[in-house]
Every structure is written in C-alpha cells, then in structure tokens.
C-alpha cells in the first residue's frame, strides 16, 4: 500500500467532511478538501445551467426531481451521486470535463499547463466527425510507435520540430 501511495504521489490529509484520514493528490502544491470540491462542482453546475439559459424550474423536472431538491446541488446542501452527475450532463448537454475539471484539474494533468492543454484538446476532438477522429487516432498511434513513450517527448517539441517519419525512432524522443 505504501508503494502505491508513493507512486501516485498521494498525501494523507484530515478532511473535515470525512471522519477518517484520506489520501489525496496535491495539485499546484495544495490539496482540495471535499467541501471545496463540492463548492466548485456546485459552481460548475450553476454556470452550465446559466450558460444554457435554463432555469431550475425547467431543469429539475428533466431530472425527475423538484426544483428545491435540484437547488440543493447548486447550494452544496446535497452531494451529487455519479449517476445524477451523468444525468445532469445528459440533460444540460454538458461534458463531464465542463462540470468536474474546475474542481479537479489534476485528473487531466500533473501541472496546470498540461491539464489545460489536455482539456482544450478534448474540446477540439469533440467537434470532429468520426473520420477525422480516426485520422487523429492514427496520427497519435504513429507518434507513440516512433517515440515509444506515449509521445510525451514529442509533444514537448511539437511546436518547434517534426518527428521522424521513415519508421526510425526520433533520437530526441
């Protein structure tokens, strides 16, 4: 267990919202506790709903709940279940990233820059049709073959130089 904790960079914290010590991953040198995560998710829900100009009174029935019950999610009185979050994404036409990433960007990258780049890439990928996605996937698979490291080294240089194209491993990968 200690090896797992070390490999993932988890740190033990006492979270007032949980009655036992828990292990969390720091991001930008800090660890968000459950209350802060709930606050950020509730803000994301409100922003997603507002962006779509959908009042609580219209959204709640789509979820099969009352306006008051839905309001508890936006005011942090009630915690969302994963199934309710999925349902909210469906009826709001929101992506999971739109709701969760503001609260937990570290799930998309170890640094703020990497998380933002990955989130922006995902947003662009969502706009592509199936044929273009297949082409992008083929390109990414090719980069992985050439570099053998998931393309991390190539990605760092992508804006300044191209990788090998003749089947040879790029020496800088």
SSE arrangement:
Elements: H1 2-8, E1 11-13, E2 22-24, H2 34-51, H3 56-63, H4 67-74, H5 82-92, H6 96-100, H7 112-126, H8 130-147, H9 152-157
Antiparallel strand pairs: 1-2
Helix pairs in contact: 3-4
Summary, kept brief:
The protein has helices at 2-8, 34-51, 56-63, 67-74, 82-92, 96-100, 112-126, 130-147, 152-157; strands at residues 11-13, 22-24.
Walk me through this protein's architecture.
With 173 residues, this protein is mainly alpha-helical. Among the domains are: 2-31, no CATH class; 35-104, Orthogonal Bundle (434 Repressor (Amino-terminal Domain)), CATH 1.10.260.40. Helices cover 55% and strands 3% of the residues. A two-stranded antiparallel ribbon has the order 1-2. Helix 3 crosses helix 4 (67-74). The longest helix is centred in the first third of the chain and has 18 residues, at 34-51. It is flat and about 55 Å long.
């Amino acid at each position: 267990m200690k090896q797992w904790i070390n490999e993932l960079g988890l740190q033990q914290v006492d979270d007032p919202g949980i009655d036992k010590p828990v292990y969390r991953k720091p991001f930008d040198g800090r660890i968000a506790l459950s209350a802060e995560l709930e606050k950020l998710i509730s803000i994301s829900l409100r922003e997603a709903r507002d962006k779509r100009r959908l009042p609580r009174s219209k959204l709640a029935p789509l979820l099969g709940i009352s306006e008051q019950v839905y309001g508890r999610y936006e005011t942090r009185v009630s915690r969302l279940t994963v199934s309710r979050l999925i349902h909210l994404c469906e009826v709001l036409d929101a992506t999971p990233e739109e709701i969760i990433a503001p609260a937990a960007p570290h799930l998309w990258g170890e640094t703020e820059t990497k998380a933002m780049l990955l989130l922006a890439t995902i947003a662009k990928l969502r706009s592509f049709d199936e044929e273009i996605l297949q082409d992008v996937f083929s390109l990414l698979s090719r980069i992985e073959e050439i570099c053998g490291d998931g393309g991390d080294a190539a990605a760092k240089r992508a804006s300044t130089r191209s990788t090998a194209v003749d089947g040879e491993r790029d020496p800088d990968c």
